[in-house]
Amino acid sequence: MKISHKMKIILLVPIISTASGCASLGVEPWERDLLAKKEMSLTSSAIDSAFDDHIYFSKEASSGGKGFGGGGCGCN
Amino acid sequence: MQLTQNKPNKKVNVKLALTAATSALLGLSSVAQGNETSELDSWSFDTAVLYYGEIDRVTATEAMIGATKTFDDDSILNLKLTFDALTGASPNGAVAQPTTQTFTRPSGNGEYQTPANETPIYDGFRDTRVQLNAQWTQPIASVYTVSGGVHLSKEYDYLSLGLNGSVAYDFDRKNSTIAFGASYFQDTYNPVGGIPNPFSVMIPGSGDEDVDDPTRLGKDDTKTTADIMIGFTQVINRRMVAQLNYSYSMVDGYLNDPYKRLSRVNANGEALDYVYESRPDSREKQSVFAQTKYNFAADWLNDTVLDVSYRYMWDDWQIDSHTVDSRFYIPIGTSSYLEPHFRVYQQTAADFYRPFLYESDDELPAYASADLRIGEMTTYTVGLKYGTLVNGDDELSFRLELYTQKPTNAGFNEPGVLASQDLYESVNAIIGQVTYSF
Amino acid sequence: MQYISKISVLVTLLFGLLLSISSVAGETVTSRQALEQALAKHKGEVVYLDFWASWCVPCRKSFPWMNMVQEKYQTKGFSIISVNLDADYALAQKFLKENPASFSVIYDPKGKLAKHFKIQGMPSSMLIGRDGKIKQRHTGFFAKKIPQYQQEIEKLLAQ
Questions:
Q1: Is A75 at the interface with chain C, CB within 8 A?
Q2: Is residue B421 helix, strand or coil?
């Protein structure tokens, strides 16, 4: 599909503004008290996820897609 | 020298025994005298039991024990052993009829019957499975995290071996993380009665491996699954973190369900015979996943955390799905919590899904399956989890969930007698779990 | 009507004045002043300045070592000054109860000192030489780097 020059600029603007917006996201290393809490980890419970993933894989047609690190206390 | 609080003797002995046993098993250096407390602190154990029970259908019990050791260099080893036992009945793919139906058992030895006006189900499964997982995670140069693991799972008719690996990079004062992961699984299916010949007609007495059987292709078959995933995690502010992932999966090999068939019906919806199903020998899946966690930390909401995620999956079988999953963590006092859970799932049918075949079709379709698992459906899960600290920092939790699966008609006619049958029976299940971590 | 508006302006001004007085009075010593005082007290000594918080797991691991090192090198002119960055004072106290510190603690709940020293991660530490200048900076606490940390301290003590 041919994208005109004008279209390219229109498409780039939200991407660039999101990316530069991303640069202002985040906190200082000493402001991670809430993020360090166990309940703020992206995987609420690895044990529950493992059981649930097995159930839903057996009963439905979709699986996976989630579960990577990041967030948390950011220590060391 | 700093000593941590000693916990009640009985529990320390259990943990010490488990630590010593696991260390010995792994060939790790035995606990040095006087270093027992810090050695114990570097180990943590998880045990859990789950019960899954569908009304009138499948029930499963799973038990898991896991051990996690954190080494001095902050690397982590996790070992997990899981057992599960499955019993009960599953639909065999044929449609309900106003008369009794007779089917052959997968083993070929004998038959079973389905009463009139009931969904044909096969009740013969008694399966136990053992699974072993080992995962190693290593932080490198403070900004990289590398992880690798193996998986082994064995049940009566199935063997699965797998490897996984991932690399994550933190940047911008660890506010951002980019991660890349890959996994590879090799599975071997050795179904009772051998691999059925797709679309062959079910013949009573078939499945005997000694006899040259036109309905059987062989004893076993394999499938491989290769996955890659890219993820991006961003701390939004002091209370919020978000993640965005993209996954690609390629499955190749034997993808049929050897125990499932389709009814071949006449113009009046009456079943004339039953044929084994046939699926493509590859499946390419992709998904995008977005999740956010928000800590309210406001006085009246007191450190509650809202977790919302959405996944969109699409594949080359023309199945599309949407999953919305949400949890709300509510702390109670300083040592307990309640966590309600709500999940909604919706999928479209595979392009070769059909509830039955017509005998009058001049040509068989390339592929066909009546497995509701790849049909159109909506499912709902509602649950509640309660957790509390016991004995210091051990955690005990209870989880109860209700799962309902509602298959729907993706636009197929229901001729003749089928109009008064329920071809899309809902399944309701209860899930109960107890977890103890120490 | 005019009286009401005049009185409300006066009340607002008075309220604002009271608030500002109380905030100044409440914070008897700022974290910056506390650090300057502590550094002045240990002038000519080697100072290990450590930034920690109750929610930081490696911080918990660093306390036993810091207690040990404080005792070991104290007579040679070595001191540890720690800066706590918990926004909630109660959490810092709970941590100290479970992990007692034999070294001094300065409270910096608003993170002003952390920002001034441009802390890049938790925990963070700095070694200040006898001349009062920062000689080493560390981000994170790694058990396997303990020999290296001690070597750095000994090198500065020898000066």
A1: yes
A2: coil
Q: Taking the CA atoms of chain B, what radius of gyration do you get in angstroms?
A: 25
What average pLDDT does range A25-30 have in this prediction?
A: 94
Question: What's chain C's average pLDDT?
Answer: 88
What pTM was computed for the model? 0.86
Q: Kindly list the residues from chain A whose CB atom is less than 8 angstroms away from the CB atom of residue C56.
A: 36, 73, 75
Residue B126: partners with Cβ closer than 8 Å, 6 or more residues away? B85, B86, B87
Any B CB within 8 A of A24 CB: no
Supply the ipTM of this predicted assembly.
0.89
Domain containing residue B398: CATH number: 2.40.160
User: Rounded to an integer, what distance in angstroms lies between the CA atom of residue B395 and that of residue B412?
Assistant: 50
Q: How far apart are CA B405 and CA B23, in angstroms?
A: 44
Would you state the pLDDT for residue B297?
Answer: 84
Distance from CA of A11 to the nearest CA of C (A): 35
Give the CA distances from residue C10 to residues A50, C2, C4, C6, C15, in Å, rounded to whole numbers and listed in that order. 64, 12, 10, 6, 8
Print the domain residue range for B181: 42-437
More confident residue, A67 or A60: A60
CA distances from B59 to B48, B81, B121, B373, C144 (A): 17, 20, 14, 17, 49
Chain A residues close to C111, C-beta within 8 Å? 28, 30-31
Q: Residue B66: which of B49, B51, B53, B85 has the closest Cα?
A: B49
Inter-chain residue contact C144 with B5, CB threshold 8 Å: no
pLDDT of residue A18: 56
Residue B7 lies in a domain: no
Bridge partners of C82, per DSSP, are C50, C105
**Which of A66 and A14 is assigned the larger pLDDT?**
A66
Question: Is the predicted pLDDT of residue B16 greater than 70, yes or no?
Answer: yes
Count of structural domains within chain B: 1
Who's near A35: CB < 8 A, 6+ residues apart?
Answer: A27, A71, A72, A73, A74, B235, B238, B241, B295
Evaluate whether residue B17 is within a structural domain. Answer: no
At B127 the pLDDT is: 84
| Confidence grade of residue B6 (pLDDT, cut at 50, 70, 90) | very low
Q: Which of C58, C114, C141 sits opposite A30 (nearest CB)?
A: C114
Q: Rounded to whole angstroms, how far apart are CA atoms B162 and B223?
A: 12
pLDDT for residue B212 is more than 70? no
In a domain, B57, yes or no: yes
Task: Please count the CA atoms within 13 angstroms of the CA of B235 that sit on its side-chain side.
Answer: 28
Alpha carbon distance A42, B242 (integer Å): 8
- Longest Cα–Cα distance of chain B, Å, equals 85
Closest to B291 in 3D by CA, of A12, A70, C53, C27:
A70
Domain membership flag for residue B30: no
Q: To the nearest whole percent, how much of chain B has pLDDT over 90? A: 71
pLDDT, tens digit, 9 for 90 and up, residues B175-210: 999 999 999 999 998 888 788 888 887 765 555 444
Chains interfacing with C (3 or more CB pairs < 8 Å): A, B
pLDDT of res. B8: 47
Alpha-carbon distance of B322 to B347, in angstroms, equals 7
List the one residue out of C59, A33, A28 whose CA is nearest residue B173. Answer: A28
